[in-house]
Amino acid sequence: MIFKVGTPLTSRFVGASLLLGSALAPVSATAAPADDIAELKAAVEALRAEQARARARIAELEGALARQRETPVATAPAPAPSAIVTTAAPVSSEPSRLSLSGDVRMRYESNFGVAGARDRDRGVLRARLRAAYAVNGWLTVGGQLATGDPDDPNSTDMTLSNFDDDLQVSLDQAYIRLTPGDLQVHLGKIPQPFVRTELVWDGDVSPQGASAAYSTDLGGVKLKASGLYFMVDESVAGPDSRMIGGQLSVQTPPAPIQAELAVGYYDYALRSLAGGDAGDFRSNLFAGGRYLSDFNLLDVIAALTWNGLGEKWPVRIVGDYVHNYGAATDADTGFGVDLLVGRAGQPGDWRFTYGYAEAETDAVLAAFSQDNTNLATNYMQHTLAIDFVPKHNLVLNATYYRYRQKDGVIGPVDWQNRLRLNFLVNF
After folding, report:
1. Buried b vs exposed e over 262-298: b needs ≥16 C-beta within 10 Å?
2. What is the pLDDT of residue 21?
3. Among residues 367, 369, 368, 373, which one has the least CA distance to residue 405?
4. How many CB atoms neighbour CB 3 within 10 A?
5. Higher pLDDT, 56 or 401
């Protein structure tokens, strides 16, 4: 057997062999010197040591080769279980059942022009967050969180004040919505179901109770019937305060001229006032802990829209007339007219508005009417507004109110002024 263990070892092996061959050759007649014998013995010992090391190295290599042949081919180990999934989840083709929306509005407001009274400037914040979850095709639950005084149903504004105190936030809406076919039903603290203007219904009022609305389309003409049972104030020991109201509305197709008409009737029975406060009663006739008038309101809203200047510049006129058939006074009527030019829905849009309104003292229930000024009823009011949409979901607005008391019963009779600059972000 021949082992090839490297050039240095081979050289030593050959040299030693030659030396050994010389030693085994026939001895000459002349005796070898003693030094040569010693050198030969050292070479033999070195050769034996080198052979021992070679045999040990060969044995080591043969053992490693044998172990390698006996070891099976290794497979990749399975990943250890983990609570974190690093692979991307499959994208569902089913649309989300949860919808979120809301808005944040920052406002600068200036009040000025009343003789003998100081001018007042303030910053105002409003923030609202809405959510709705579709349980199935006909059942949805929803709600809205809003800033503002929870005891003030017609405002969600907060004055930036009070040494940086935290803002008040309340559950402004919480409802169940049922949509079987063309019928829509709301239960709970619910969105406003009626076509409205600020004359009768402030935009922040969310009634509590039950509403139903049925809509249909007859050859492009939209018809809608709405009803509301409004639990205003529930009493444990006595009669409740509530409102039952209904509205019929019709809207023609968006031709060059579109017409709209809504007629509503709201019958209040205000027997319990335990949950009310001065902010709810405001400017209605009130004495001895009760309203002097009943409130049975006929509300008629009509609108015409002309689209002859193009889709960016519709011209719209809206009129609202209200009469209280339950008033204990002849101050029982109100009206408002608004002229709007332009739209405010797409980037680059402009809209210009002028409005004029009057409301007598008991023409409307002040608890739920507009709060754009500090006069809820018994007022004459001019309104100028400009809206600009620089980007999607962003609206810049400037609104100027000039108003005064109609009859001059209590407080200043001068014309008052209120300027509002609004920065509104929708999402």
Report:
1. bebebebbbebbeebeebbbbbbbbeeeebebebbbe
2. 43
3. 373
4. 14
5. 401
What Rg, from alpha-carbon coordinates, does the chain have?
46
DSSP state of 275: T
Q: What are phi and psi of 52, to 5 degrees?
A: -65, -45
- 253-308 pLDDT, tens per residue? 988 999 999 999 999 999 999 999 988 998 999 999 999 999 999 999 999 999 99
The total number of residues written for the chain in this structure: 427
Residue 51 pLDDT level (bands cut at 50, 70, 90)? confident
Each residue's pLDDT tens digit, 215-237: 999 999 999 999 999 999 999 88
Tokens 């021949």 label which residue? Answer: 2
Distance, in Å, from the CA atom of 302 to the CA atom of 23, rounded to the nearest integer, reads 135
CA angle 341, 154, 363 (to 5 degrees): 75
Whole-Å CA distances, 15 to 18, 24, 170, 425: 5, 14, 103, 98
pLDDT at 88 over 70: no
Our CA angle for 403, 407, 410, nearest 5°, is 85
The three-point CA angle 302-308-313 to 5° equals 80
Q: Which residues, 6+ apart, have CB-to-CB distance to 353 below 8 Å?
A: 338, 339, 340, 341, 383, 384, 385, 386, 387
Burial class (CB in 10 A: 0-12, 13-18, 19+), 33: exposed
Query: Contact at 8 Å (CB) between 300 and 320?
Result: yes
Burial class of residue 324 (count of CB atoms within 10 Å of its CB; 0-12, 13-18, 19+):
buried
Contact 412, 375 (CB under 8 A): no
- The answer to whether 242 and 269 are in contact (CB under 8 A) is yes
pTM above 0.70, yes or no: yes
